[in-house]
């Protein structure tokens, strides 16, 4: 997997350079009421796919901006060229490039690059997770009441706003505090690095979350759906995302279940 790991890092750095150069110089269009796409998203994705196709022309890929190759290969690259596009479009310096490699339904490589902070999160299955080359681990917080959490809201949220806000209220009354930063990939990585203790969000896509999933798990954390069950198929990754340091996972599940009774 050494070549694949090198190509992963090349993709992250090259796309990061594109995003950095274009920051503050692009307009955006709407894919949905709150879902943006910029010219930089497209340019970053093109850069990543060129690198992958050059090195692994037989591999499939799943990318956010209308990028799909599905020939039945056991290997599939899962790509979010800019995660946190709304932040990017408004020049908020919190966004990332996220790339993962799946073998069948199993994520074996993952990388997330925080362009503005120049922080590179990497993981290889069974080998641990790193931040700029140094091992990272989840926090030791054991009780939800002491936890700092992070969350996000789905783009298509109007019809579910009461449900989403009720869940947010239950969490914020049960933990130390909650943040909302706007990049799911970085939210996962920040749990992996111990900056946050837990994260929840639904209606995400595989490209939002695949790399962060591996990074968090390799840092000692846990990722499941809202019932506490592990994700089974790549195409369902992110539909319900509950991620934590593992120690507060059951309490987080219980908070979500309260709204389902």
Q: Can you tell me about this structure?
A:
Helix 5 (184-192) packs parallel to helix 6. The longest helix has 21 residues, at 2-22. The protein has an eight-stranded mixed β-sheet with strand order 4-3-5-6-7-8-9-10, sandwiched between helices. A five-stranded mixed β-sheet has the order 12-11-13-15-14, sandwiched between helices. A two-stranded antiparallel sheet has the order 1-2. It is globular, with a radius of gyration of 17 Å. 33% of the residues lie in helices and 27% in strands. The protein is of the alpha+beta class and 261 residues long. Strand 6 (96-103) and strand 7 (106-114) form a beta hairpin. It is built from seven helices and 15 strands.
Please outline what is shown here.
The protein has 261 residues and is α+β, with helices and mostly antiparallel strands. Helices cover 33% and strands 27% of the residues.
């Amino acid at each position: 997997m050494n070549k694949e790991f090198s190509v992963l890092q090349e993709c992250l750095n090259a796309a990061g350079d594109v995003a950095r150069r274009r920051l503050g110089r692009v307009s955006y269009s709407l894919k949905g009421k709150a879902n943006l796409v910029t010219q930089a998203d497209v340019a970053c994705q093109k850069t990543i796919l060129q690198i992958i196709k050059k090195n692994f022309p037989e591999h499939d890929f799943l990318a956010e901006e209308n990028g799909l190759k599905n020939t039945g290969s056991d290997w599939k690259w899962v790509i979010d060229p800019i995660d946190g596009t709304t932040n990017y479009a408004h020049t908020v310096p919190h966004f990332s490039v996220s790339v993962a490699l799946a073998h069948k339904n199993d994520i074996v490589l993952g990388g997330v690059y925080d362009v503005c902070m120049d922080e590179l999160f990497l993981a290889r299955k069974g080998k641990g997770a790193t931040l700029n080359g140094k091992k990272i681990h989840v926090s030791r917080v054991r009780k939800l009441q002491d936890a700092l959490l992070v969350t996000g809201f789905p783009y298509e949220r109007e019809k579910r706003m009461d449900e989403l806000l009720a869940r947010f209220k239950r969490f914020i009354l049960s933990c130390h505090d909650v943040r909302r930063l706007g990049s799911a990939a970085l939210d996962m990585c920040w749990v992996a690095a111990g900056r946050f203790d837990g994260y929840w969000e639904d209606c995400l896509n595989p490209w939002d979350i695949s790399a962060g999933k591996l990074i968090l798990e390799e840092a000692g954390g846990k990722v499941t759906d809202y019932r506490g069950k592990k994700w089974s198929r790549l195409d369902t990754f992110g539909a319900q995302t509950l991620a934590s340091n593992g120690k507060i996972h059951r309490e987080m599940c219980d908070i979500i279940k309260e709204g389902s009774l």
